[in-house]
Write a structure and sequence with these properties.
Elements lengths: L35 H11 L3 E6 L8 E7 L4 E8 L5 H11 L11 E6 L2 E7 L3 E2 L9 H15 L11 H4 L6 H7 L7 H5 L1 H7 L11 E3 L8 E4 L5 E3 L6 E3 L2 H5 L2 H6 L4 H8 L3 H4 L3 H18 L11 H20 L3
Protein name: Phosphotransferase enzyme family protein
Organism: Streptoalloteichus tenebrarius (strain ATCC 17920 / DSM 40477 / JCM 4838 / CBS 697.72 / NBRC 16177 / NCIMB 11028 / NRRL B-12390 / A12253. 1 / ISP 5477) (Streptomyces tenebrarius)
């Protein structure tokens, strides 16, 4: 039996009408910069040499992310990090998760993983692009359909050793309580006036969090690929799995719609009408919104991680848009 899955801290998202292209980007190594011995192992597992490589953008982890064209005409996607890197554990976890996901899941198939001088994950290549979730985009329907598909494909949870969302994620989403100990002088005036209420409500989602669905816990547009062939949206980067109620992954899309230019009312109309969310009390959804706002507010004040560009600015925008969502729902002064 494999060791139990242990989650990690999600990196969070941004705020305001923007896309990831508007933010700072992580500096990624190219395929040519991967040690020769590691590239040789990958080619041996592939059974053929690599003819060409294209670096990919997206996310804030400073690891390899390249599409490889092989000598036999096939293509694969590889991602990786040195085994000594601080975030190598999350790559190991992603590999262990990916190799155990059911075939029907809307996610690329893991071909193999290498755990040597580098951790390298090789996936089937998906010919597609990040979906556009701005208002009026035809990609919106495909994204919402993918969210429904995830809940169906991953209920019951296919990973019995995945941690509970209340054990793994809930302790991280207590940002307002942490900030209330010594409120920052530059805290947003609305948040400062309503800090006690934010502390009180940020755990309101807990009674509705239990469930038997495998949760991604970091669903955002740059963790999705819309396939050229059929328009289907695939979900990637399974680094933070938990089991819990399906509505949590679905409701977490709202801030990303806000940062793409939707109003809170329009974003809620698209997302909260999903069957898995419609059954959840309004106060629980409000608590979940407040919890993410506090998480981003707190983490945006930490030092910038090595190798990442713009993560903290991105989280400040995330906090702002999540506060907007909470203010819309509560009408607090």
């Amino acid at each position: 039996m494999p060791p139990p899955l242990v989650g990690a801290v999600p990196v969070g998202a941004g705020a305001g009408p923007m896309t990831l292209a508007d933010t700072g980007r992580v500096v990624r190594p190219s395929w040519a910069e991967v040690p020769g011995a590691v590239r040789a192992i990958v080619e041996e597992r592939l059974g053929v040499s690599v003819r060409k490589a294209w670096g990919q953008v997206g996310g804030f982890t400073p690891g390899l992310a390249s599409r490889l064209a092989l000598a036999d005409g096939r293509r694969v996607f590889v991602k990786g990090l040195p085994a000594t890197h601080a975030q190598a554990a999350s790559y190991r976890l992603e590999g262990r998760v990916a190799e155990r996901l059911p075939e029907r899941a809307p996610t690329p198939r893991l071909l193999f993983r290498v755990d040597d001088e580098w951790i390298v994950l090789a996936f089937e290549d998906v010919d597609g692009r990040e979906p556009n979730v701005r208002p009026g985009s035809p990609d919106l329907a495909a994204v919402l359909s993918a969210l429904n598909g995830l809940a169906k494909a991953f209920t019951p949870c296919p990973l019995p050793d995945a941690p509970s969302v209340l054990v793994d994620l809930a302790p991280l989403l207590r940002g307002w309580a942490a900030l209330a100990v010594a409120p920052p002088a530059d805290l947003d005036p609305w948040a400062s006036r309503n800090l006690d209420s934010l502390v009180a409500v940020e755990t309101a989602w807990h009674p509705w969090a239990e469930g038997d669905t495998l949760l991604h816990n970091d669903l955002r547009p740059d963790n999705m690929i819309r396939r050229v062939a059929d328009g289907r949206v695939m979900v990637v980067d399974w680094s933070y799995p938990c089991h819990g109620a399906a509505w949590l992954d679905i409701a977490a899309l709202v801030p990303h719609l806000l940062l793409a230019g939707h109003s809170p009312a329009d974003a809620e109309r698209l997302v909260l009408s999903r069957p898995a969310v419609a059954r959840v009390p309004a106060w629980a959804v409000t608590g979940f919104a407040a919890a993410w706002a506090g998480y981003w507010e707190l983490n945006s004040r930490l030092p910038e991680p090595a190798g990442s560009l713009g993560l903290r600015a991105y989280q400040r925008r995330a906090a702002a848009v999540a506060r907007w969502w909470v203010a819309h729902r509560t009408r607090w002064p």
